[in-house]
Write a structure and sequence with these properties.
Number of strands: 22
Number of helices: 5
Distance between the termini: 17 Å
Oligomer: single chain
GO molecular function: integrin binding
Bound molecules: 2-acetamido-2-deoxy-beta-D-glucopyranose
GO cellular component, one term: external side of plasma membrane
FG-GAP repeats: 29-91
Order of helices and strands: EEEEEEHEHEEEEEEEEHEEHEEHEEE
Structural class: alpha+beta
Radius of gyration: 20 Å
Keywords: Signal
Helix content: 10-25%
Shape: globular
Number of domains: 2
Signal peptide: 1-23
Length: 322
């Protein structure tokens, strides 16, 4: 890349990562207040979304909220769709209060395939009942109008060869509330405990997910184009146990690549769509941002890297893009 990429970096002191979409014209008059059930962590994440039918909503994550799945109520996590002006008039807005509604977006649950369901419940029911799968921890609305909404479940358990890949992670992608598709990483041990979907970004049919805990915290980034999830960045996806591989794994452990991701034409609209992924803990917590092409090769090396300069600053903890 020629010009220094135009990335706005914000180091946030909060643990929760709140990401903003396109703004509504929010005025202090006509204030609305919504809350979720006690203990649901309603408001952990928030996004402003204008869907493909041009309906505007505030999407609110509640990663400990209940959902019913397979006829059982679990704290799987939930996403609420809030319409602040539903059933209100301009007068109501002037006087403040009243009107508006939030409801849980349905169908953001594991697939209801009988074998999957039976196995998941027999192996994993205790965990689901006590810890859920953190659905709605990460919410991102694609930029622009008439766009996709991503609601991710970084602790989603994937069934793989008679066992579960715990905390495999995945995201649901919505065009509108009735059109929901699951985007899951490929069957690969690299995704075990990866928390894929901890970060997500989308543009022009690409859905980029970060899995910062993959491979002992080396982390990884994967791009899914129209439902096909391609190669990913880590070099250690196989069960390779030779000494050299093990020492490389140790060297990158706890770098957390994919902690935050963005997808944009950095530096101008004529530049290629490029992935930015941060590794905030790399090099003694100095942190760095790596840029990857959207069409990744296996074990893709970054096109460009921006390094944090001071020890301990966690450069790249949060990323925003134009
Ligand atoms: C979830 O449902 C259970 C059982 O119905 C209830 O005890 C719990 O309070 C609910 N939790 C939330 C966060 O709504
Ligand atoms: C799951 O499938 C069963 C049988 O196909 C059906 O009875 C049940 O209502 C479904 N549950 C959900 C949550 O969709
Ligand atoms: C779901 O649970 C309710 C209440 O426990 C029960 O009456 C109903 O028969 C169950 N439905 C199915 C499909 O298992």
């Amino acid at each position: 890349m020629g010009a220094r990429p135009c990335v706005v970096l914000v180091v946030m002191v909060v643990v929760a990562t709140v990401r903003w979409g396109q703004a509504f014209n929010v005025l202090p008059v006509g204030l609305r207040s919504f809350s979720g059930p006690p203990g649901s962590q309603f408001g952990f994440s928030v996004a402003l979304w204008k869907d493909v039918k041009n309906v505007k909503r505030v999407v609110v994550g509640a990663p400990s909220g209940n959902q019913t799945w397979a006829n059982i109520t679990f704290p799987l996590g939930a996403a609420y769709l809030c319409e602040p002006h539903l059933g209100t008039t301009d007068d109501d807005d002037d006087q403040g209060g009243g009107g508006g509604a939030c409801h849980v977006q349905p169908n953001l649950t594991p697939e209801n395939d009988s074998i999957y369901t039976r196995r998941l419940l027999s192996f994993y029911r205790y965990t689901l009942e006590h810890y859920g799968m953190a659905l709605g921890q990460t919410l991102v609305a694609e930029k622009g109008e008439g766009t996709k909404m991503m609601v991710c479940s970084p602790r989603y358990p994937e069934y793989f060869r008679d066992n579960y890949i715990v905390n495999n992670g995945m995201c649901y992608v919505m065009q509108d509330p009735t059109d929901v598709a699951a985007v899951k990483p490929p069957y690969n041990k690299a995704f075990k405990t990866s928390l894929t979907g901890y970060s997500v970004a989308s543009a022009e049919d690409n859905i980029v997910m970060g899995g910062p805990m993959a491979i002992h915290g080396c982390g990884l980034v994967i791009n899914c184009v129209k439902g096909r999830c391609g190669p990913f960045t880590t070099k250690f996806e196989t069960g390779n146990t030779d000494k050299e591989t093990i020492s490389k794994k140790k060297a990158c452990s706890d770098t957390y690549q994919g902690w935050a991701v963005q997808l944009a034409r950095f530096g101008g609209p004529s530049n290629p769509l490029t992935i930015a992924a941060s590794s905030p803990k790399t090099r003694n917590y100095k942190g760095q941002i790596s840029f990857f092409p959207v069409q990744m090769k296996s074990w893709q090396d970054p096109l460009h890297v921006i390094e944090g300069e001071e020890t301990g600053v966690l450069f790249g903890y949060a990323l925003a893009s134009p």
